[in-house]
Amino acid sequence: MSSTITQPRLGPLGTARWFWRQLTSMRTALFLLLLLAVAAIPGSIIPQTGIDAGRVAMYKTNHPSLAPWLDRLGFFNVFVSPWFAAIYILLIISLIGCVIPRIRIHLRTLRAPVPRTPKNLSRLPAYVERSVDEPADVVLDRARQVLKRKRYRVREDAAVEGRARSIAAEAGRMRETGNLIFHSCLIWVVLAVAAGHLWGWRGDAIVPVGTPLVNGQYDTLNAGPLVDTSKFSPWLLRLNSLDVSFEDKVAPTSPQYGQPRHFTAYTTVQDGNGKPQRKVISVNHSLSIGGNSVYLLGNGYAPMITVRDAKGDVLYQQETPFLSQDNNYKSTGAVKVSSLPSSQQMGFFGFFLPTAAFSDTLGPVSTFPAPKDPALVLGMYVGNLFPGNEPQSVYTLDTSAMKQVQGTGAQSKQPLRLMLKPGQTVKLPGGRGSITFNSVQRWAGLSTRHDPGKLPALYGALLGLIGLIMSMTLRRRRVFVKVTADPQDPARSLVSVGGLAKGEDPRLEVAIDGLALAVAGDDSTHVQLRTQAGART
Amino acid sequence: MKFDFSNDHIDTGIATLSSHFLWASALVLTLAMMSFALDLAGAPYRAARLEARRSATTQTQATADGDVLVDTAVATDVAPEKRPWGGRGITLSWLGTLLLIVAVVTRTIAVGRPPLGNMYEFSMVGCMFAMVFFLAWSLKSDIRWLGVFITGPIVLFEMLAAVIYYTAASSLMPSLQSYWLSIHVTVATLSVALSTLAFSLTLAYFVQNWRDERGEAGRERLKWMDALPSAASLDRTTYGVLIVAFPMWTFTLIAGAIWAQEAWGHYWNWDPKEVWTLVIWVVYAAYLHARATAGWSGKKAAYIALAGFVAILINYGIVNVYFVGQHSYSGL
Ligand code: HEM
C-alpha cells in the first residue's frame, strides 16, 4: 500500500464543476462586489469620453506623459472598458449561478411540512419554562391561537411514546423569498439596462425660437445597434418662446448672482396627423410625444443677423445660434455667407455677449447671463468657406482657405473687429456690403430620448426593494411549545418554549420570552422557572 | 408665505437668525459631549465603588445568615449609583437638538422651501436626524455610553456646516426645483444619519475587540470602556442599524435615478455623484454578504462597514465640492 497522499484527479468536467462552484460561492461574490466598488472609482476621478469629451481632451494636453497610458488601459472609458465589464459580467454570472439553485431549494422548503418538535428543548439557543395554573388542554389551545395570530405555520403532535404534547411552528420563510426576489430583480434590472442600450436612442438639436423640430432630424443622433432609424414616429414640435430667468436679486459679489432660476419652453406639438397642441417643457418636466420624451437641457442666444451686398440685396438672414462658454453666457458662433463664388465667400467669427464689458486681460467678456446690454464682437474672413467640401461644425469657421480682413484707418495694422449692438448696421471694408445685428433671439437645446428599458428597470428596482425590505425585516424562526400536566396537580401544567433562528437574529430571546408569556396567559403571578440562553453568548 | 421649490422670495433676516441657532446648538452639544465624557471617565470608579459596596454587604450578610442565599440577596441590594454627568449629557442633548430643530425650521421659513438645496442645508438636516434617532433610542434603552460618540461627530459636522459649507439663503437652480428633492435628499440624509450612528458603533466595537484580544492585560487598558456593551453586542447593534440604513440607501439610489431621468433625460449617466452612490451601496452590500460568509464575520466585516462610511464621507465632502459633474449644487 502506498503511503503517499495523492490529490484526486479532476477531469475536464470535474475542473469545470470545481470552477463553477468557486465562481458561485459567497466568497467570490463578496470579492467581486468589493472589486466592483474599487474599479468604479477611477471613472469618477478621471474625465470620461462618454460624458465630457472636451474635458478628456484638456486632460490629455495637461498630462502628456500619463494620458497615453491611461488611454491604453481604458481609463477614459472606464464604464465600457473590458476590465470593468469583466467584473460585472462575472458578478452577474455568479449571481445567476447562485440564485437558481437557491430558488429550487427554496421551492422545496416552501412545500415541506414543519419539522417535528425535538426531544430536548432546553438545548435550543433560546429556552423558557413556566408553570401555569391551568390544565394542559387550555394552555395548548391558547398556544395554538397565539402562534397562529403571530402568523406562524403550526404542526401539532399528540403525546406518543413518552413525548409530551407539543406544537411545532415556523415563521419567516418569506425572508428567503424576499432575498431571492431581490437577487432576481438585480438580474432583471441589468437586462433591462442592456435592452435600453440596444434599442434606445437619443437625438439632440439646437432649436431657435420659431423654428420647427421634426423627429428624426437632429444635429446629433446616438442610436443603439438595434434601432431602426427609418421607423421614427412622425411628430413635429415648434418652439414658440423660451422663458429664462437668472438670479439678480442678490449682491453681484454673491456666488448666487447670475445663477439660473427658471427655464421654460412654450411649444406647439403635432403628433402624426393629430391636431396641434400647446405644451410646456421645463427642467424636470419633459414632454411625452409619440413614445418619445423631449427634454429641455440647454439654452443660449441666437442673434438675428443680416448680411447685404453693396447693392443692398440680402445675402444672409438668419437666427444664428451661438454656444455659451461660461456661466455668464459669453458665447461663440459663426456666420457663413456661402451664397457667393467660393473665392469671395465671407465668414464672420466671434462672440455674442449678453451683458457686454471689456476686460484689459480677457478682452470682451459678459458680466451677466441675461441680455441687459447685448453686443456682437466679430472678426471677418474672406475666401473659400468649405475647402474640400468636408463636413464642418456650424459654430466655427474653417479658415484654412480664407484670409482675415484687416481693419481700416488707424487700425489697418490689426485684424478687423466689428462691434455691433442690436439694431446697428456696419459697413464692411472693401465695398463688400454691410452686416446688421437685427435682434436677440434665444435657442433651446432639446434632447429627444427613447429608452424601452427604463420602465422595466424601474419596476424591477422597486420590486427588488420590496424583496430587500422583506429580507431585512423578517426573521426565520422555529418555535416549539411543549405542555405537560403537573404530576402533582392535574389542574396545573408545565409549559416549555424553545426557539432557534436561521442566520442573524438578535431578538430571538426576547421573542421567545414574549411568546412564553402569551402562552401562559400573560398573568404576572405565574413564576418563570428558568431561562437559558444555550448556544448564544 | 409662499412655500414651493421655485420660491424666489428669500428672507435674509430669518436666515441669519437660523445660523445663530446653529451656533447655539453646536455650543450646547459640545457641553453635552463633555458631560458624556465625564460620565464615561467616571465608570472605572463607579465599578470600583460598586465592588466595594457589594463585598461590604456580602460580609455583613454572611455573618448574619451564614447561608447560601446571600448571593441572590446581595445582587438586588446593591443598586447602581446615580450618574449625574450622564443625565446632564442627555438633558443638554435634548436642548441642543431643540436648538438645531429651530435652526432648521427658521431656515425653512427663510428660504420658503425644504432646506435641502446645498451642503450647508443638508448637513444641518442630517445632524438633526442623527440627534433625533439618538434621543428617540435613549427613551427606550440606556445608551448614555453612546452619547460621546454621537455628539462628537455631530458637533464636528455642525461646525463644518457653519464655517466651511456656509451658503447664503437663496433660491434653487432649475434642476433642483422638483418634489424629488425632498424625497431623494431626505431619505439620503436619513440613511447617512443612520450610517454615522453605525460608524460610531463600529469604532467602539474595534476598541472593545482590541481589549478582548489582549485578554486580561487588555481589560486593564481603557477601563472606562467597561461602561460600553461587549464587542459582540456592539457588532450586533451595528448590523441592526445598517439593515435599516441599507434599504434607505437603495431607495435613495432608485429615487435619484428617477429624478435624473426627469431632469437630465437619462436615469444613469455615470456622473461622479452617481458613481459614488453606487460605490457606497455596493460596499454596504458587501458588508451584509460578509456577515453571511464563513470566515468574514466579525472584524473583517467591520472593516468593510468602515470602508462604506469612508465612501460616504468622500461622496459628501470631496465629490460634492471638487469633482466636476452634473451634481454641482454644493453652493460653494
Ligand atoms: C450583484 C451582486 C449582488 C448584490 C448587490 C447582492 C446584495 C445582497 C444584499 C444587499 C444582501 C442582504 C440582504 C439579505 O440578507 O437578505 C444579500 C444577501 C445574500 N446574498 Fe447577495 N448580492 C449579490 C450577489 C450575490 C451572489 C453572486 C450570491 C451567491 C453567491 C449572493 C448570495 C447571497 C446570500 C446567500 C445572501 C443571504 C445572506 C444572509 O442570509 O444574510 N449574492 N445580497
User: Helix content range of the residues of chain B, please?
Assistant: over 70%
| Annotation field: number of helices of chain A | 10
Bound molecules: protoporphyrin IX containing FE
**Assembly level:** heterodimer
Average residue-wise pLDDT of chain B: 84
Largest interface in this structure: A-B, 60 and 63 residues
Distance between the termini of chain A: 48 Å
Helix count from the secondary structure assignment of chain B: 11
Strand content of chain B: under 5%
pLDDT below 50 for ≥5 consecutive residues: which ranges of chain A? 523-537
Mean pLDDT value of chain A: 86
Shape of chain B: flat
Please tell me the total number of domains of chain A: 3
Largest sheet of chain A: 6 strands, antiparallel
SS-based structural class of chain B? mainly alpha
Radius of gyration of chain B: 24 Å
Q: Helices and strands of chain B, in N-to-C order?
A: HHHHHHHHHHH
Q: Low-confidence parts of chain B lasting 5 or more residues at pLDDT below 50?
A: 66-76
Number of DSSP strands of chain B? 0
Q: Strand order, biggest sheet of chain A?
A: 2-3-25-26-1-27
Helical/strand content category of chain A: alpha+beta
Structural write-up:
The complex is a heterodimer of chains A (537) and B (332). The two termini of chain A are 48 Å apart. In chain A, the strands form six sheets. Chain A has a six-stranded antiparallel beta sheet with strand order 2-3-25-26-1-27, covered by helices on one side. In chain A, strands 14, 15, 16, 19, 20 and 21 form a six-stranded antiparallel beta sheet that branches. A five-stranded antiparallel beta sheet of chain A has the order 6-4-24-11-10. Chain A folds into three domains: 22-109; 113-172 and 475-536, TATA-Binding Protein; 201-450, no CATH class. Helices cover 28% and strands 32% of the residues of chain A. Chain A has 537 residues and is of the alpha+beta class. With 332 residues, chain B is an all-alpha fold. In chain B, α4 (84-111) packs antiparallel against α5 (119-140) and α10 runs antiparallel to α11. Chain B is flat and about 70 Å long. The interface between A and B is large, with 60 and 63 residues. The complex binds protoporphyrin IX containing FE (HEM). Protoporphyrin IX containing FE (HEM) sits between chains A (24-26, 29, 33, 91, 94-95, 98, 179, 183, 186, 471, 503) and B (285, 288-289, 292).
